[in-house]
Write a structure and sequence with these properties.
Number of domains: 2
Structural class: alpha+beta
Number of strands: 5
Distance between the termini: 34 Å
Length: 167
């Protein structure tokens, strides 16, 4: 498990490798890093400190930092959901830090919390939101969700490079 400095180094390295910056607000950055370290100790993985984790990894895999939604959020809003990763524009003008809408499907959040309450790992997703498995045709990354990810978290291919994966 990473301590505070190791987590900060990991986040900074990931930001640099992906063309992002870390949160320009030093107090918020420290809180976010502490949250990641705490979540890694608590759950065994560094889930987003701004989202409710279920403690069932299969439900939370999409919110393990850097989360599956980061690239789309930074591209559209200049920052990820918690503000840990930001664009150059937000880095240069921290006054642009602010709330953004949640992209995570409610059905996944609800199923994770239900699994946590029942102490089970079984997935029960609300039928009204049908999930598919999408495969990135560039790198092979698989994602289970209603629609393909806007950007592949592995190779950065856009949504149109995903196809439905049939098992």
């Amino acid at each position: 498990m990473k301590d505070h400095e190791e987590m900060l180094d990991y986040v900074k390295k990931d930001a640099e490798e992906n063309g992002y910056y870390v949160c320009p607000d030093e107090d918020l950055l420290e809180d976010l890093i502490s949250g990641l370290v705490d979540n890694e100790k608590r759950y065994g993985y560094a889930s987003c400190p701004c989202r409710a984790a279920s403690a069932v990894k299969q439900y939370d895999v999409d919110i393990i930092c850097p989360c599956e939604y980061r690239d789309a959020d930074v591209n559209e809003y200049g920052m990820c959901y918690c503000g840990l990763f930001v664009s150059e524009e937000v880095h240069e003008d921290p006054s642009k830090l602010g709330p953004i809408p949640e992209r995570r499907p409610e059905s996944i959040i609800d199923a994770g919390m239900e699994a946590k309450e029942k102490g089970t790992d079984e997935i029960e997703i609300d039928e009204k939101e049908e999930l598919h498995v999408w495969r990135c045709t560039v790198c092979g990354y698989l994602a289970a969700r209603e629609k393909p990810p806007p950007i592949c978290p592995i190779c950065k291919a856009k949504a149109e490079r995903f196809v439905k994966f049939e098992m």
